[in-house]
Design brief:
By secondary structure, this protein is mainly beta. It is built from no helices and 11 strands.
Length: 111
């Protein structure tokens, strides 16, 4: 049973930063692609960032240069450093493993 638990969200002022964390458990095998999505009220869920098994990363255009995804294979954690936050970044942020397993999300509110 794969479990993904996000943490690190909160309320910050525009221009602020947060570090989101996703703890993964309940699976074995080789590393897979992990990602972060977000969903704002009334909007569709959108991809934010992804990190592949080889460490290569990709980002949505809207967050390039401000967000950084990283992972710690030894601790089965994926991180999303979010800097220079804008009001439009306000959303619930979800961690996903290979787009098959999903966490419950952590809320980020920028005022």
């Amino acid at each position: 049973h794969v479990q993904l638990v996000e943490s690190g969200g909160g309320s910050v002022q525009a221009g602020g930063s947060l570090r989101l964390s996703c703890a993964a458990s309940g699976y074995t095998g080789r590393p897979v692609c992990m990602g972060w999505f977000r969903q704002a009220p009334g909007k569709e869920r959108e991809g934010v960032a992804a990190i592949d098994s080889d460490g290569s990363t990709s980002y949505a255009d809207s967050v390039k240069g401000r967000f950084t995804i990283s992972k710690d294979n030894t601790e089965n954690r994926v991180y999303l450093q979010v800097n220079s936050l804008k009001s439009e970044d306000t959303a619930r942020y979800y961690c996903t493993r290979s787009w098959l397993d999903w966490g419950q999300g952590t809320q980020v509110t920028v005022s």
